[in-house]
Amino acid sequence: MGLCLTGRKEDVADLVFLTNDSLNVEWIANNLLNDVFYYNEIRNMRGCTGFFDGTRVSVQGLGIGPVNAAMYAVEITNELDAKMLIKIDTCRSLQADIGLGDIILPQTAHTTSRINKHRFNGQTFPAVADFIWMDHVYTEALKKDKNVFAGPVVSIETRHELEIAKQFAERGALAIDMEMNQTFTAAQRFHIPCVGILTVTENLVTGEKMNEEEAQKSFQDIARFALDAVTKRVEG
Amino acid sequence: MSKFIPDLICAEEGAIAETVLLPGDPLRAKYLAETYLENAVLYNEARGMYGYTGHYKGTRVSVQGSGMGTSCIMECVHQLVEDYGCKNLIRIGTCGSSSLDVHVGDTLISTASASVSNNTVQEFGNYDFIPTGSFELIKLAYDCSKELGIPVHIGPTTCTDALYMERDKMPEFAVDPMKGYNFIGGEMEGTGLFVAASHYKHVRAALLITCSDHQVYTHEDTPLAERENSYNNMMKIALEVACKIDREGK
Known about the structure:
The complex is a heterodimer.
Chain A lengths: L14 E5 L2 H10 L2 E5 L8 E6 L2 E7 L4 H13 L5 E10 L9 E9 L3 H5 L11 H13 L4 E8 L6 H8 L5 E3 L2 H10 L4 E10 L8 H24 L1
Parallel strand pairs in A: 1-4, 1-5, 5-9, 6-7, 7-8
Antiparallel strand pairs in A: 2-3, 3-4, 5-8, 6-9
Chain B lengths: L18 E4 L3 H11 L1 E7 L6 E6 L2 E6 L5 H15 L3 E10 L9 E9 L19 H14 L3 E8 L12 H4 L9 E3 L2 H8 L6 E11 L9 H4 L4 H17 L2
Parallel strand pairs in B: 1-4, 1-5, 5-9, 6-7, 7-8
Antiparallel strand pairs in B: 2-3, 3-4, 6-9
Helix pairs in contact in B: 2-5, 3-7
C-alpha cells in the first residue's frame, strides 16, 4: 500500500483511466460501468473497478497538477500493477482553429514544472504517448466524424503560467493541461503504454468558453468515447 | 537578420522541392538520387553538401545532405524554409540503439527527441520544451511502412551532442540520467530538426532512422563501407511519404 491508494493488485484492472476530478470517477462508475466497487479509501480520491461493455477497467482520480499526477500515476502502476494508462480530461485550446468540443490527443507534453529537470539531472525528458495507441484512437475518432488534433500540449503548474504557455503555443503546442507530462513520465518509467484523450472546453485565443454544464457534458462525451475506443482494441 | 552563418545551400530559386529528404551524409543523398530519382539535378555543391531534385513515381522531391549535429541541420532547415519555401522535411538518418527490441538494419520512426545538452531549447530555460515530430508525417510514414511490409519501431529517441564524451570522468548519474527509460535509438540531429521546424507553423518534420550499430548486439554492427547503401527500407518509406504528401496537396 502506498501513501495515496489503498487496495490490492487484484482490485485494479489492467486498463486504468485517469481523470483529475474525483467526482468524475463517480459519474463514470454510475453511468458507464457495471459491477463497480471502490478500492481506495484515502483522501476521498475515488478509484474504482468495474466493467465497460464486458471489459474490466479501473477509473482513478488524480487531483490537479503535475505533483498529484506524479504520485497517483506512479502508485497505480508501481504498486497496483496498472498495465496501461489512459488520461481523460478537459483542456484549454491554444490554437484558434481548435474549437470547443474538439478532441486533442497529446503526442508529447511539454511542462513548466521542474519535476523532470530535477529527476533527469537538468535534461529535458521527452514525455510521450504510445504512438500505436494514439494512432488507434485517432482512427476511431475519425470514424466517428469527430474533429481530432494530435500534437504537443503543455502541462502547466499554476494559473499564472498562461502567458508562458503562449510561448509554447507559438512553437506548436495545441492546448494546456496540468497532468499529462507526469502521467506520460510515469508510464515510460514502468514501460507501459499511455495515451491522453482530451476535450476542449475553452479556447484561449478566441475567448470562447463552455459553461459548467456544457463542460461537464463534454467530459462525459469524451469519457464514453475513450472507454469505447480503448476497450474495442483490447477486446479486438 | 544579417547572415551570421555563410550559406550551406547555394541554389537557384525554385530549384528545391517542397518535400526534402535529409540524410546527414551527402554521399547518401547522392546514392538516393542516383538509385531512386528520375531526372535528378544536382542543385547544391557548397561545402560538399550535395542536394538533388528529381522525381519519384511522378512526385517532385529533393534530397539534401544536412551534415552532422544540431547546428548544422538547424541551419539547413532554416535555409530550406526561409530561402527556398520547403514545407515537409524528413530526416533519413542513422542511429545507435541499446533497445533490446531493435536490431541493426531495423527502421525507426521518432515521435520526439531528447537533447542531452538542451542546446536547441535554451530559450525555454528551466521549462521542458520537448522537440516533437509532426504527427501527420509520422502517421503517413507508419501507414507507408505497413503498405510496404516493412516493420518499424516508433517511439522517442535521444540526441547526443558529444560523441566522444569522457564518460569515465563523469558521475554515473550524469552519464545517463534517463537510464531504465525506453528509447528506440540515439542519434545527433533529431532535436535540431524538430526545434528548427517548430519555428514555422506551416512546416512539418519527421525523423526516420536506420539502426546502424547496437550497444548490446555488438556483433551486428554494420561495416562503415556498407552503411551508404544499406538503408533502402528507410529511403523507400520516406519517398512513399513524399508521394502521399503530394496527393494530399500539402
